[in-house]
Amino acid sequence: MKILVCVTSVPDTTTKITFTDNNTKFNKAGVQFITGPYDDYALARAVELKEKLGGTVTVLNVGEADTEPVIRKCLAIGADDAIRVNADPTDAFFVAEQIAAIAKENKYDLILMGRESIDYNGGQVHGIVGELLGMPSISPVMQLDIDGDTARIVREIEGGKESLEAKLPLVLGCQEPIAEWKIPNMRGIMTARTKPLKVVEPTSKDTLTNVSGYELPAPRGNVKMIPADQVETLIQLLRTEAKVI
Amino acid sequence: MVSEIVENQVDTTQLIAQSVRELSERLIRPNVRQWDEEQHFPADLFRHLGEQGLLGMLVPTEYGGTGLGYREYVTAIAELARVDGSVGLSMAAHNSLCTNHILLFGNETQKQTYLPRLATGEWIGAWGLTEPNTGSDAGNMRTTAVRVGDEWVLNGAKNFITHGKTGHVAVVIARTGEPNTSRNATAFIVERGTPGFQGGRKEDKLGMRASETAEMLFEDCRIPDSQRLGEVGDGFVQSLKVLDGGRISIAALSLGIAQGAYEAALQYAQERRQFGQPIASFQAIAFKLADLATDIEASRLLTFQAADLKDQGKTTTKESAMAKLFASETAVKVANEAVQIFGGYGYVKDFPVEKFYRDAKLCTIGEGTSEIQKLVISRQILK
Ligand SMILES: Cc1cc2nc3c(=O)[nH]c(=O)nc-3n(C[C@H](O)[C@H](O)[C@H](O)COP(=O)(O)OP(=O)(O)OC[C@H]3O[C@@H](n4cnc5c(N)ncnc54)[C@H](O)[C@@H]3O)c2cc1C
Ligand SMILES: Cc1cc2nc3c(=O)[nH]c(=O)nc-3n(C[C@H](O)[C@H](O)[C@H](O)COP(=O)(O)OP(=O)(O)OC[C@H]3O[C@@H](n4cnc5c(N)ncnc54)[C@H](O)[C@@H]3O)c2cc1C
């Protein structure tokens, strides 16, 4: 079983978001980066499958050198080797093209991704990669078992679940509870030091989209407490001040 | 495509810090208050810390440890203590005192027998030097070990021993010579369940309440000579060497507590508004934060300096004592000021700083009080 896991390096969930360059660029200064949480689940399941069925797990990131701490954490969790496509990943199609190029060269049985990145939340890279490789792509996958060349999958759908079967190779977008959350242990951290991390240049540099501006939601206003026995006041304020009724 | 293999050498400590922080936030933070209130020693968590490789950090891999150095070790303790000082203390005592004593002075059989169990967390270790009447003056201990044929018979009591009750194995220092003579103590390995050895009263403490502190009682406890660590008469000298390393771990514990208290205060000072502005905008509060941040940085430098020297195989008696003295006094100061910055909210249990305040005080007492650290330092500089 040859598994490729695509991971993002994203701002920690508690980051205070600011922009530079006239609100067209996210300001990375002082930001702590983490592995995308959905990608973490994808990797954790890949490592579990490898432990059960044998094989290899390769992690792939499209990003510049500053994403390497995140890649190393993935190696410490149990991936065997890593590839970094050396480019600023500025749109989903570009990222998908890079992933597809690596996949064409290496013939993976499974390509696991997160259901979505938690920075730009596009939720489209797995779909595009599936298209480029001519493989089924399924998301969001919350359960995954492999039986020979068949994957048994449970997917979350609006208000319920869908059980599917599909032949490998496949591209999957993963989410919890597909695997148990893993934190690197000391042994993993030590062995990660000698695992190979290959840096390759992108196949193309063209991006199809261009950001013209970002905008943050308006700051939350102060809370006004209305005593429980003054419902009239509450209704009046909802009408005149909040203007929601 | 051009490709190159980059050397995958990173600052491992950074990855360790991140991982232990993640573990602390997920597995420890949600339980901190309950464990503190119930004085619950989280044995399950310790098994997990063992699986993560945190209970045999200094133990070479051939004995089941992770074979890391002090730099990595202090990084891990500080991250645990940043969330819960008790867990940091227990982890430090297990690694630095019991396990390290066997690692440094055990023979091959003893190392093969005990280190793999201790390093994986299958067994929790205790280390008994202190007695009710001899704390700082540990050289005058009253617990005795008398040789009878191929056995030693232990009698006496140790108190304030971390994991004194739940520890599966203890390194015990007992007097084997006449009182007030040199080389009169010897170290032994005693397993729980050995007839004549039992855990006594568990202390009800001000802080560090999730770390078990208890008596160990010996009444005609017979152990074979094969359980002796090193030479007869070397027990006290061995202990001082064990403490040279142990004190670096208490410095790291102090650093973590200070960091945790400071982070809480820093955040609160920016959120709490009085007189229409965040209290951090008052210079009295801002300067306090500046002082705390500076002291913490100094603690960090002293702690990592001692750790690095230890990793280079140097004797660190002075540097360990300096790091422990400064970092522990800093922890007490930072926790105290953090409570002040929180005002009344700092005094209640819904906020984290009152616990840091209670926990921090142990650091100026355990593994040698601040006064004893000054004694150690002054003897080194006045030689
Ligand atoms: C409008 C826009 C502007 C952007 N600007 C920047 C920028 O200025 N700087 C910058 O660094 N990035 C930028 N990004 C890139 C972003 O970080 C993503 O890497 C990439 O665009 C895919 O985003 P997505 O939200 O569509 O991913 P999704 O489709 O939500 O991601 C699904 C899964 O695909 C995989 N995946 C996604 N991205 C990568 C990747 N880079 N490497 C490996 N696997 C991946 C992961 O498994 C992920 O969980 C931008 C993205 C967008 C949409
Ligand atoms: C939570 C906790 C965990 C512990 N864990 C362990 C453990 O695992 N194993 C273990 O062996 N011990 C352990 N200890 C014991 C600890 O090491 C002792 O409490 C410490 O060494 C101080 O000894 P004492 O309490 O007897 O104080 P004392 O020695 O009685 O000191 C009282 C005061 O007198 C001062 N003093 C004493 N002598 C001098 C001097 N010569 N000059 C100046 N001042 C002096 C001290 O600084 C202190 O202020 C633990 C203690 C606690 C509270």
UniProtKB/TrEMBL annotation, chain A:
<dbReference type="InterPro" id="IPR014729">
    <property type="entry name" value="Rossmann-like_a/b/a_fold"/>
</dbReference>
<dbReference type="GO" id="GO:0005829">
    <property type="term" value="C:cytosol"/>
</dbReference>
<keyword id="KW-0249">Electron transport</keyword>
<comment type="similarity">
    <text>Belongs to the ETF beta-subunit/FixA family.</text>
</comment>
<keyword id="KW-0813">Transport</keyword>
<dbReference type="InterPro" id="IPR033948">
    <property type="entry name" value="ETF_beta_N"/>
</dbReference>
<dbReference type="InterPro" id="IPR014730">
    <property type="entry name" value="ETF_a/b_N"/>
</dbReference>
<dbReference type="InterPro" id="IPR012255">
    <property type="entry name" value="ETF_b"/>
</dbReference>
<feature type="domain" description="Electron transfer flavoprotein alpha/beta-subunit N-terminal">
    <location>
        <begin position="23"/>
        <end position="209"/>
    </location>
</feature>
<protein>
    <recommendedName>
        <fullName>Electron transfer flavoprotein subunit beta</fullName>
    </recommendedName>
</protein>
<dbReference type="GO" id="GO:0009055">
    <property type="term" value="F:electron transfer activity"/>
</dbReference>
<dbReference type="Pfam" id="PF01012">
    <property type="entry name" value="ETF"/>
</dbReference>
From TrEMBL, chain B:
<comment type="similarity">
    <text>Belongs to the acyl-CoA dehydrogenase family.</text>
</comment>
<dbReference type="Pfam" id="PF00441">
    <property type="entry name" value="Acyl-CoA_dh_1"/>
</dbReference>
<keyword id="KW-0560">Oxidoreductase</keyword>
<feature type="domain" description="Acyl-CoA dehydrogenase/oxidase C-terminal">
    <location>
        <begin position="233"/>
        <end position="382"/>
    </location>
</feature>
<dbReference type="InterPro" id="IPR013786">
    <property type="entry name" value="AcylCoA_DH/ox_N"/>
</dbReference>
<dbReference type="Pfam" id="PF02771">
    <property type="entry name" value="Acyl-CoA_dh_N"/>
</dbReference>
<dbReference type="InterPro" id="IPR009100">
    <property type="entry name" value="AcylCoA_DH/oxidase_NM_dom_sf"/>
</dbReference>
<dbReference type="GO" id="GO:0050660">
    <property type="term" value="F:flavin adenine dinucleotide binding"/>
</dbReference>
<dbReference type="InterPro" id="IPR009075">
    <property type="entry name" value="AcylCo_DH/oxidase_C"/>
</dbReference>
<feature type="domain" description="Acyl-CoA oxidase/dehydrogenase middle">
    <location>
        <begin position="127"/>
        <end position="221"/>
    </location>
</feature>
<dbReference type="InterPro" id="IPR006089">
    <property type="entry name" value="Acyl-CoA_DH_CS"/>
</dbReference>
<feature type="domain" description="Acyl-CoA dehydrogenase/oxidase N-terminal">
    <location>
        <begin position="12"/>
        <end position="122"/>
    </location>
</feature>
<keyword id="KW-0274">FAD</keyword>
<dbReference type="Pfam" id="PF02770">
    <property type="entry name" value="Acyl-CoA_dh_M"/>
</dbReference>
<protein>
    <recommendedName>
        <fullName>Cyclohexane-1-carbonyl-CoA dehydrogenase</fullName>
        <ecNumber>1.3.8.11</ecNumber>
    </recommendedName>
</protein>
<dbReference type="InterPro" id="IPR006091">
    <property type="entry name" value="Acyl-CoA_Oxase/DH_mid-dom"/>
</dbReference>
<dbReference type="InterPro" id="IPR037069">
    <property type="entry name" value="AcylCoA_DH/ox_N_sf"/>
</dbReference>
<dbReference type="GO" id="GO:0003995">
    <property type="term" value="F:acyl-CoA dehydrogenase activity"/>
</dbReference>
<dbReference type="InterPro" id="IPR046373">
    <property type="entry name" value="Acyl-CoA_Oxase/DH_mid-dom_sf"/>
</dbReference>
<keyword id="KW-0285">Flavoprotein</keyword>
<dbReference type="InterPro" id="IPR036250">
    <property type="entry name" value="AcylCo_DH-like_C"/>
</dbReference>
